Each structure stands twice: as structure tokens, then as C-alpha cells.
Amino acid sequence: MDGAASEDLVTYELRGSIAVIGLNRPEKRNAVSDRVVNALSAAAERAEGEARAAVIHGHGKHFCAGLDLAEHVEKPLIDAVKGSRQWHRIFDRFERGSIPFITALHGAVVGGGFELAAASHIRVAEESAFFGMPEGTRGIFVGGGGSVRIARLIGAARMGDMMLTGRTVGAPEMERWGGVSYVVPEGQGLEKAMEIAAKTAENAEMSNYAILNALPRIQDMSSEDGLFVESIMSALTSATPEAEERLRAFLEKRAGKVEAPRNG
Ligand code: 1HE
């Protein structure tokens, strides 16, 4: 047992239109037990009902130490399969839901913690964050969607290297590998993630929905099918009253221009 009421394993707060979800087992480095997975699912459901975007972060010294290894010891084979499928269902809910999820990463981002981050839409890492996939050393394999999502983010060769050698990768290198999109100074991860979440929350809901749901599916299609679905989504989003108003606002000079990046 992970020794806490499930509502305490994950904190939840609504700040304006942004849901702030915190992994909250700092004494166990936010290791993910079955009940943490379920608490994350409840938090995601609540966020989708009342927020326009969400940030996931970790309380304490680390983002997340991955699977709760204490719970995994001597788990019957069938329970291990069911457990992994439950992670898949819940991480899918983040990835293909209706609002953007941004992860704020610091300290250790390990195994299942990296898999959770990979299911989010934008990853922000503090400079000292480090990424590890010690599955090889632990005698296990990824089970939270990493073989699909992490492999797509950084490439199967790099992921295989991390799993075989157990080596850790720092935030700047992970940014070069495409595993995170932003690296920020110590202590500024949550603030940056909130800023990004607020930006995404201003978008038209239908555009966000298409970005979250059509884009990853198109990656699984043939080019021919992908281009067809793109055309349908393009027509659908632009037919909404919100798109019409936003397009008109630009033409009438009531909307902002696209700006050059501020830092190079
Ligand atoms: C844990 C876990 C855990 C810490 N399950 N209890 N994940 C791992 O292989 C990572 C294992 N953890 C570590 O390598 C280190 O704990 C950290 C680098 C993350 C952090 O180090 P540190 O020095 O800050 O903490 P600590 O002293 O090692 O840990 C504090 C406590 O948390 C300690 O328990 P205590 O009772 O002795 O106080 C640890 O045992 C406990 N703890 N991590 C259970 N993961 C869906 S498949 C996904 C597959 C994976 O995720 S594989 C990766 C598993």
C-alpha cells in the first residue's frame, strides 16, 4: 500500500482556467502506484470538465521515480498486464483528451515518470532535470506507453541505449534529442509551464481538439490517408463561428500579429 488517502496522492487546484495537478508522494519520490494512476485519472477527468489546459508537476525533490517497484514485486503475470493496460488507458486520456496537458519536470524523470511526461503535449524541464530508463537493470520493460511515445519523441535507438545501459540524460541533451521543448533555470519549471498552459488555453477549443486528436492519429496513417484527414479537419475547424470571428479580427486589425522569437 502507498499509505495515503488517494486524494492526497495527487493534488488538484484550479487556477483561473488552468488545472494544476501535482504528484504528491515526495517521500517515495512520487513513485506511481496503482492508486496514483487512478488518482491521476480522476484529476484528468476533473480538469477536462472545468479547465482549458492543465499542468502536471511533482512535489518534492523529483518529478517522478516511475513505477512503484514495491508494488510490482511478485505481481501475478495477469495483474502486470492489466496494470500496464490501465496506465495506457489513463495516459491515452491525457494525450488524446480535449485540453492540452503541459508537464513541468525537475529532478528525476525516470521510467514511468518519463512515460507520463511523454503522454503530455508539451514538456518543460528545469536545467537539473535528468531522464533515465533503468528498466534493463531492474529486469523489466516499459509498460506505460514508452515504447511508442518515448521512441517517437527521441528515436528508438536513443531509447534503446538508455534502457540497455541505464545511463541518465540531462535536460539540455534531452532538449537536443527532442524529448523536451523548453529548458528553464532551476525553480522556474512550474511558472513556465503555467505560462505555456495559459497561452494554449486562449486558442479556439476546436483547434486544440484537432491538434490533440487529429495530429497523433495522422502520424499512424499512410500519407494519403493523413492528407485526406487533414483536409477534413482543416475545413471543420475553419467552419466554426470562433474561427470566423478570429479570422475577421485579424483582417480588421483587432488581433495580434505573428511575432519573431524574442531570444534568437
Ligand atoms: C521508490 C521508488 C520507486 C524511490 N518505487 N519506491 N524506477 C526506478 O528504478 C527509480 C528508482 N529510484 C531511484 O533511483 C531514486 O530513488 C531516485 C534517483 C529517483 C531518487 O533518489 P533519492 O536519493 O532522492 O531518493 P531515495 O533515497 O533513493 O528514495 C527515497 C525513498 O523512495 C526510498 O524509500 P525508503 O523507504 O527507503 O525511504 C526509496 O526506496 C523510495 N523509492 N523510487 C518504490 N520507483 C509502467 S512500467 C514503468 C517502468 C518503470 O518505471 S522502471 C523505473 C523504476
From TrEMBL:
<dbReference type="InterPro" id="IPR014748">
    <property type="entry name" value="Enoyl-CoA_hydra_C"/>
</dbReference>
<dbReference type="GO" id="GO:0006635">
    <property type="term" value="P:fatty acid beta-oxidation"/>
</dbReference>
<keyword id="KW-0456">Lyase</keyword>
<protein>
    <submittedName>
        <fullName>Crotonase/enoyl-CoA hydratase family protein</fullName>
    </submittedName>
</protein>
<dbReference type="Pfam" id="PF00378">
    <property type="entry name" value="ECH_1"/>
</dbReference>
<comment type="similarity">
    <text>Belongs to the enoyl-CoA hydratase/isomerase family.</text>
</comment>
<dbReference type="InterPro" id="IPR029045">
    <property type="entry name" value="ClpP/crotonase-like_dom_sf"/>
</dbReference>
<dbReference type="InterPro" id="IPR001753">
    <property type="entry name" value="Enoyl-CoA_hydra/iso"/>
</dbReference>
<dbReference type="GO" id="GO:0016829">
    <property type="term" value="F:lyase activity"/>
</dbReference>
